[in-house]
Amino acid sequence: MIKERFPDTKALIFDCDGTLVDSLGLYALAWPAGLRSTGHAMEPSWYLERGGFSGDMLMDAFEQEVGQTLDRAQVMKAVWSTYSEGIDELAEIAAVTAIAREFHGRLPMAVASSGPSDFVRLSLRSLGLDVLFDAIVTIEDVAAAKPAPDLFLEAARRLGMAPGDCLVFEDSVQGVQAAKAAGCNVIDVRELLEEAAEA
To answer: Do 120 and 129 meet the contact criterion of CB atoms below 8 Å apart?
Structure first.
């Protein structure tokens, strides 16, 4: 399917959350727990409406809503505690991880995520997915989160590839925009999952 639609593909780049791993439900518990540590309530639905946001983007939006600057280190410590405690509940997104496994050893592959490195690496490691990838790029490695192209440009650089030779798998509007801005081809995982459900 990939080689048929994108015959010139020389490398694959995957987003993590919502693409390789079904982590949004876990984050929807972890982020409200993190905010409770500051005395504020975040509804899981508020978080889910902003899926694809980096942590700083999410905090920017929440601080604007409550009109207060919060202790981000304290919040992230509590988010990490809840997320890591629930990691055994994490599941992979089989329609996408099957592609990663199929091309492991055949094409260079990377992960490019707006998430923090500790979270991304824990998620991948917990499902045995980390060994599939030649590079893992996270928000700490670049100047700007998606929809800026930085993460995908850095992933392509680490793979030794031109962005135009890379095919990106993404599940968010910001991620698709970032991939296109980087000059990569992109598959919207939401459409891929719809096709899998109909098959």
So the answer is: no
